[in-house]
Amino acid sequence: MEHTSPAGKEDLIVGRNAVMEALRAGREIDVLYLAEGDAGIGKLRAMARAAGVVVKTAARQKLDQMSGGLNHQGAAAVCACAVYADLDDLLEESSRKGTPPFLLIADEIEDPHNLGAILRTAEASGADGLILPKRRSASLNATVYKTSAGAASVVKVARVSNLVACIRELKQRQIWIFGAEMDGASWDTLDFTLPCALVIGSEGKGLSRLVREECDFLATLPMRGQINSLNASVAAGILMYEVLRQRRLPK
Known about the structure:
It is a single chain. By secondary structure, the chain is α/β, with parallel strands linked by helices. The protein has helices spanning 16-24, 42-50, 60-67, 87-97, 112-125, 142-147, 163-172, 209-214, 232-247, and strands at residues 12-14, 29-35, 54-58, 75-79, 102-106, 129-133, 157-160, 176-186, 196-200, 217-220.
């Protein structure tokens, strides 16, 4: 049986049998939390990994809190609010619209509110989709869905195991990689009419080193105040609308 917590987390499934049935049914599960030190959940762990689900070990106290007092039996699964796409699905969007590819890459953005805000602007600015890593990243949970005002179910999102390998594949497909970074070229001097993917770094660290090294261009936003960085979703929004401005059709 599928349970929801009293806190209103409608994306939560608790209990070994319920989680196992969800995996067998092919439910889109973001993260499976399993109790540490529980020897009886090995089969569940193997099933989840075979399905490509991210598995995390958690203290029983955390599972108790997540499940709101329901009998979780050492297992709780957070389900996605939308079905993940693959990279080809994202690229088919640009082919369908007859426009150069316009993708977003979230490099370890862990705040679901930021990810939701990025998705909302992505939908409004006409981006083809967003790519995020399976590890060290927010995922398509209920908070992301709410913050995105439903855009999480409209914008295609691909989840990849290795972000650097994905970027290299995009480059092989003639897509230029633009990273948002403090020491790059001014954002308004770059040519976003090219087939492009915008990379937005994490809230605290910015772009990871390996991802930064794969970028073809680095885009910098001017800072005139005393604070030297912008919120990730704000920076993403400015760059997305610069892409839209450069690509808009003449009247």
